[in-house]
Design brief:
The chain is an alpha+beta fold. Helix content is 17%, strand content 44%. The protein is built from three helices and 22 strands. The chain has a five-stranded antiparallel sheet. Strands 9-8-5-2-10 form a five-stranded antiparallel sheet, covered by helices on one side. A five-stranded antiparallel sheet has the order 13-20-19-15-14, covered by helices on one side. Strand 14 and strand 15 form a beta hairpin. Helix 2 crosses helix 3. The longest helix is centred in the C-terminal third of the chain and has 18 residues. The radius of gyration is 28 Å and the shape is elongated. 29% of the residues are buried.
């Protein structure tokens, strides 16, 4: 995963880490700027640097709560807080982040960032003769920011519209065994095969093409599919309706996904191939 926050030479040392369960963070959702405020006068605000979408920010020590020491090269210290307080300013968050080779403290507009909680992971770092324990691994913060951005990116997700009913100019007596053959070639274990009702279902199998579903995340894995097929005998022709179920795993949680139309087309192609073979 692309780093969003700290370079490898930078660590974050936590005070009283044993009492910390979850902390506040910010992910930049659109290109913006980090501003530095010298005083409360508006004309004292000045731009420090641009911030791109995906940048992860820490609450600065101006915010209340427990504090971390941000350690740069082991001997240069900056402070940040572990949570944010909405009431400090209605339009901005006070933050600290690593930019331009150094940590910078300033503020960002609230409409350019998304707030999330994260649970830090700790390790120990040795700096010369001293040991900094309870050091926060940057990866845990970066990962939480990435997941928040992923959630926002798919907030307006809508399932694709697909075609799942197909007509065959062959009687059901020929189409039925062709479907069975196509599913067998896909190594799909059957759960139900009821010729009288025209229903065929399979047990879940790994996505046979690895690209047949649309999920509301960029981090789906362990993609599974289950076939539910209804065969309708129309005398000299047959209609086949494919209602497949799709699931995946995101962050250890099973999620529901949707067909992008690829699976249905792939199965129908297999059925047509089986019919051609039978007709020879």
């Amino acid at each position: 995963m692309k780093s969003l926050f700290l370079p490898l030479s930078v660590t974050v040392a936590a005070l009283a880490a044993s009492s910390i369960l979850a902390e506040d963070g910010l992910a930049v959702t659109k290109d913006t700027y980090l501003f530095k405020e010298v005083s409360r006068a508006k004309d004292s605000d000045k731009t420090i640097c641009p911030l791109s979408r995906g940048k992860a920010l820490l609450p600065s020590s101006d915010n209340p709560g427990s504090r971390h020491v941000i350690v740069d090269y082991c001997f240069w210290f900056h402070w940040c807080a572990t949570n944010l307080k909405e009431g400090l300013d209605p339009q901005r968050f006070s933050v600290v982040t690593f930019v331009g080779g150094n940590f910078q403290k300033g503020w960002v507009p609230k409409d350019a960032v998304a707030r999330f909680t994260w649970t830090p992971e700790f390790h120990t770092v040795r700096c010369s003769d001293s040991v900094h324990s309870n050091v926060v691994s940057p990866a845990s913060y970066e990962h939480a920011a990435t997941m928040k951005l992923d959630e926002l990116a798919f907030s307006d997700f809508k399932p694709p519209k697909i075609e799942n009913t197909f007509a065959f100019d062959e009687p059901a007596a020929k189409v039925w065994p062709a479907i069975i053959e196509a599913l067998s070639d896909a190594q799909a274990p059957f759960e139900l095969v009821d010729k009288q009702s025209g229903l065929i279902t399979t047990k879940p199998i790994p996505d046979p093409l690895k690209n047949t579903m649309a999920c509301a995340t960029a981090f789906d894995e362990a993609n599974m599919v289950k076939f539910n097929i209804f065969v309708k005998d129309k005398g000299t022709s047959t209609d086949v309706k494919i209602n497949a179920s799709f699931s995946a795993v995101r962050e250890g949680t099973t999620i529901h996904c949707y067909s992008n139309g690829t699976l249905e087309t792939w199965l129908v192609t297999g059925v047509k191939k089986a019919l051609e073979t039978t007709g020879q």
